[in-house]
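I had to read the description of the data format several times before I understood it. For illustration, here is how one protein appears when written out as sequence plus structure tokens:
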Amino acid sequence: MTTRALVLFSGGQDSTTCLAWALARYDHVETIGFQYGQRHSVELDCRATILEELRAMSPTWDKRLGEDHLLDLSLLGQVSDTALTQNKAIEFQKNGLPNTFVPGRNLLFFTFAATIAYRRDLKVLVGGMCETDYSGYPDCRDNTLKALQVALSLGLEASLVIETPLMWLDKADTWRMAKDLGGDALVRMVEECTHTCYIGDHTTRHAWGYGCGECPACELRRVGHRNFLAIAVGDQA
């Protein structure tokens, strides 16, 4: 049985929920984050607080949570011309993709994560990618990540598994997963401590957390939180 995992951990809602999922599942869990010139780099400032909160939430999680790795991938931001790496308006491109798509981002993230995992004998890579509530990013698709799992395993001559526990969930389901994993305490922590806003606004507080309230990431989080609360009320009725 595989007991060691590495979670791609940005400081956002999805990766935080995936980290809790991994802590509930694996005996040893490490985390990795990336500084790639993102305009919402405030998400990286949230990571240390989230890790502390998760440790305090459960003695088991505290015992299982291992080393955190932060890699400098600023070159990606330098070669990208996107609304996540440049101060420009969010809009759709001629190819139908939003200009928040950073080409190669998740492919590079998993490749660098795999090099850390190889050295530290971590057999599972966990990411918060999702095909249900997303912006159409091709590197979030299940088929992309299955192909990448094969390529990494062959290229490293090591059996690596890519787990994406949110792949077929919408944002309301993601909130529900957090509650199932850590109860109201984890939901409140996700609301208060994580960052999702593309613009990088971590000063304006909403019921669902901090953000500009207008970008696509904020809208997905807002609607998901609203639907999650509505479902919770229905369950209690």
In short: The first helix runs from residue 13 to 25. Residues 4-236 form a domain with the Rossmann fold fold (CATH 3.40.50.620).
